[in-house]
Amino acid sequence: MNISPSFLLLSLVLLVSTLGGVAQTCANGDDTCTANKDTQNQQAADPRRTITIDNLSKYRADIHYDDGRFGKIIQTVPSKGGSPNPISTFVGHRFFVTMHGVREGLVDPTTDEQIFFTVGGDELNDKFIIPKEATTSKTRCKDRYPVCKKEAARGECTNNPGWMIVNCCQSCEEKEGYGHLIDSEVRCTRERLNATKAAFDVGSLDALFTRWATEEAFVQYEPN
Length: 224
Hints:
By secondary structure, the chain is α+β, with helices and mostly antiparallel strands. It contains 8 helices and 10 strands. The protein has helices spanning 5-23, 31-45, 148-153, 156-159, 161-167, 169-176, 184-187, 204-214; strands at residues 48-55, 61-65, 72-77, 87-90, 94-99, 104-108, 113-114, 116-118, 125-130, 135-136. The strands form 2 sheets. Strands 2, 3, 5, 6, 7, 8 and 10 form a 7-stranded antiparallel sheet that branches. The protein has a 3-stranded mixed sheet with strand order 4-1-9, with no helix packed on it. The longest helix is centred in the first third of the chain and has 19 residues, at 5-23.
């Protein structure tokens, strides 16, 4: 009798499903099995979790809670094996990692993608690793935050260019063509800073100090 491959595949799937169901069934009087099931149910119902983050990279790192905006720094992790205190959090919370003090994201060098951690529901206590090879991006014009595209779309590259060009360069390049301004020598020229005229004319400071030292209005301050 010829049996079709599709029939065999369906039979195998049903067999695996049946065995899986048997493995999950607790026998009467099996207190250990019942306790394990109760623990699993409690973990599924309680969203609270505790995580630790080990930093194997050469960079001292800041850990930020991803609040959907620009993040909230919650912890600094020492470099080369640093592991600070555990973090109390909830299932679904996400964290991102930056080089300490400058908010420049640490990335996976093979993908150039910034390192994120998302808290799952399987473990009450979980550990995340900042890998040894983690580094800063070689891409100069890069977004530092997931919210950058939204900020660019609502006009912040024009309304707040000084901050946006540095922190959301990629989105500002796509939206306004401002990516070249990431170069400080281009961004901070006297013309762009509206500082083409000298703050003081030649000799004006000498004249100011002479007034302070000689005019009667300033005698009360006892200039010497």
